Amino acid sequence: MIDNKMRTPVADAIEWALLQGLSFKVTQDTAAHTAFSFTPASIDKGRFEQLKSSTPLLGRLIHAVSEEPLFLQEAISPVASGDAFFDALLKMQTQLYSKGTKPKRLPLLIMRSDFMDDAESGPKLIEFNGIAAGMGPFGQKISQLHSYLNNQWPKAYSTWSAAENGESIDNPAIERLSKGIAQATMQIKREFNDEGPATFLMIIQSNEDNVFDQHMLEQALQSLGIRTIRRTFRELHGQLTSAPGERLILDGVGSIDTVYLRAGYEYCDYAAKDILGLVCCEALMQTRVFIEQHRVAVNATVSQQLATSKRVQMLLTAMDPEALTQFGLKLNEAKTVKQLMGEMLAVDKDSAVWLAARSSEDWVLKNQGEGGGHCIFDKDIVPKLRNLQPHEYQAWSLMRRLHPRPRTTPALLVRKGEVTVVNDLISEIGIFTLHIQGLPVSEEAGYCGYLIRSKSAGTTEGGVHTGMGVLDSLVYTT
Predict the structure, then answer these.
(1) How far apart are CA 144 and CA 32, in angstroms?
(2) In which pathway does it act (predicted)?
């Protein structure tokens, strides 16, 4: 039971969250607060500093991989036969690099690398997020909420704190992400030396509810003098044209300097049943190709999306440090990257028999999907492996399951206005990095803040948006 003395602090926290936009849209005119922890998680300072300093190397690595079309072709081709969406992505990639040409776009790599701090082996990579790598602003806001609660309600805060008087870890996600995007935007603007405002285009999903996180980033860009525009792929269809120098023009708006995709990671983002004459999704996928054929900063490019796939992650994980140096890393940097990567295995005809003789609880089965709902756990893995057809094998991989230490004290979670106590809360750590044409942006080698999502150790779906996770922040272990 929650002490009655907690009701007022919790109510204040909910109102603060709503006031600051820490919310999801519910209907056209209503919103609900995101699920959040009342106090932050704790982490050893050395482990967090290791992540801050080493994760930007992953950004450099992924940029280099994304600029190797032959490597990506060979990596993704085996997946395409078992995954129609990746088949479509590969066709877009092939079109962009046809006849030896190179897309005109300026690669802007905003990446969130997600880790779990395994109790035995330390922080290990779960996945790369190179398209729609959002919720950085939410990560900063929940950190601010925890600081507010510590100051405003110190007794309630200390009651539920995982590390009493632990030093809060600053989260500059909004400032650094917007600064990096602004730098890329102004670079394109200067190249054309044209009049009018620098313009940022965010491609969004229709009727989505995760809009406030997006608007926080847009507001930060607006404060830097950049005009922001929001459109779906459907709204862009037939509205984009070319100007001299492969300048991208949006009808009714003018020239576009940066395109940021918060959509495009699943087939439904390209669906348009009202467009006649083309097969489903082809028209809007061609809109994406058209954008990349112009001189505009783009995140995520098709190449970046492929380079951050589970398939490429598995291939990179299997390489030794010497092999990783082919992507521009020095040997000592490649060794650092190798330490971050967990164990991944390709799926084949023998995988079901192999895993049936072992503990399936030690592994997770993943396909190529982005977001929640694409992982299979425990007793469901072997039956799924047995039902896969040979052409589907390469679209799946096995990843060694990670086991972070739960909080040592119970945690208070707030969801839909109600509070619950969880005794085994574990956290997933997302580290944001930003690179323009492979070069880091920020004073810390490309580090741009963090996102913490926490959940019960017994819950498999930990997303804040679609799963049972909550927003969280970090303090150093005392």
Answers:
(1) 18
(2) Sulfur metabolism; glutathione biosynthesis; glutathione from L-cysteine and L-glutamate: step 2/2
Residue whose tokens read 């592994």: 363
Top-tier CATH class for 343-401:
alpha beta
Contact (Cβ atoms closer than 8 angstroms) between residue 294 and residue 104:
yes
> What pTM does this model have?
0.95
Judged against a pLDDT cut of 70, whether residue 393 lies above it is answered with yes
| DSSP strands (E only) in 167-285 | 199-203, 227-231, 240-243, 247-250, 254-255, 258-261
Looking at residue 100, its pLDDT comes to 78
The whole-number pLDDT of residue 310 equals 94
Q: Residue 290: which of 96, 32, 477, 59 has the closest Cα?
A: 96
Among 164-168, 206-210, 354-358, which stretch is predicted with the lowest mean pLDDT? 164-168
Token pair of 385 as six digits:
């492996």
Cβ contact 73:465 at 8 Å: no
How many CB atoms neighbour CB 160 within 10 A? 20
Residue carrying structure tokens 């959509």 = 263
The bridge status of strand 258-261 relative to strand 199-203 is parallel
Residue 373: the pLDDT is: 64
* Residue 429 Cα distances to 226, 306, 329, 335, angstroms: 30, 22, 24, 21
């079109």: which residue's tokens?
A: 95
Torsion of CA 253, 256, 262, 266, to 10 degrees: 90
End-to-end CA distance of the chain: give it in Å, rounded: 28
Q: What is the DSSP letter of 138?
A: H
What does the alpha-carbon distance between residue 275 and residue 273 come to, in Å, rounded to a whole number? Answer: 6
Characterise 180 by phi-psi region: left (phi > 0), alpha (psi -120 to 50), beta (else).
Answer: alpha
Please confirm whether the linkage preceding 32 is cis (ω < 30° from 0). no
Compute the distance between CA of residue 350 and CA of residue 353 in angstroms, rounded to an integer.
Answer: 6
- Pairing mode of beta strands 199-203, 122-129: unpaired
C-beta of residue 325 within 8 angstroms of C-beta of residue 334: yes
pLDDT one-digit tens code per residue, 343-372:
999 999 999 999 998 888 889 999 988 766
Contacts of 170 (CB under 8 A, 6+ apart): 143
Beta-carbon contacts of residue 96 (< 8 Å; ≥ 6 apart): 103, 289, 292, 293, 302, 303
CB count, 10 Å around CB of 380? 13
Measured CA to CA, the distance from residue 298 to residue 435 in angstroms comes to: 11
Domain boundaries, the chain: 4-342+423-476, 343-401
